[in-house]
Amino acid sequence: MAPRMIERWFPCEEVSRESASGWGTGSAEKSLFTWFASRPLAQAKAAVICSLIPWPDDPGEQHRLKELVKQAMEGYDAANTKLRDELARYYPNGARMCDPFSGRAMIPAAAARLGIQSWGIDYSPVATLAGLLLADYPMRDWESEPDLPFSPIRRDHR
């Protein structure tokens, strides 16, 4: 099996920068569910990308892939279309991944945002609940759910 990008290169500088502020901190996820071993969202996104993309022999191709990953670190959904296309080259039937110690499921959440089928496993029932709240439920298609059995809240009444 060919080595993966993560074995040869990882965007440490970009992950550190984005983890310090903005989209990559994972602060929105932390506000929904605090966890003792919180991982920044930028780190999870970079780990997903770099663990799936094979490391090419050609230096020009290596440079192109590094630039793509750096571009992906510029925002929450930055370069997602390009990344999905790139992953489809290597995984024509769709990429899949499992995080066996997923905690709040940040790796599965980052993978799902890229269209990757993913699973998170954790021994802790609290972590399992966190994964459902942060990674599973937001990614579900809720269109077929029935309307709620009560009227919307009116904010204009006093």
Describe the protein.
- The protein is mainly alpha-helical.
- It has one domain.
- It has helices at residues 5-8, 12-20, 27-32, 41-52, 59-72, 80-90, 106-113, 125-136; strands at residues 96-99, 117-120.
- It has a two-stranded parallel sheet with strand order 1-2.
- The longest helix is centred in the middle third of the chain and has 14 residues, at 59-72.
- The protein is globular.
- The termini are far apart.
Could you list some keywords that capture this structure?
158 residues, mainly alpha, 48% helix, 5% strand, globular
Proportion of strand residues: 5-15%
- Give unreliable regions as ranges: none
Shape: globular
Supply the number of helical segments.
8
Round the Cα radius of gyration to an integer and report it.
18 Å
Q: Can you give me a brief rundown of this structure?
A:
By secondary structure, the protein is mainly alpha-helical. Helices cover 48% and strands 5% of the residues. The chain has one domain.
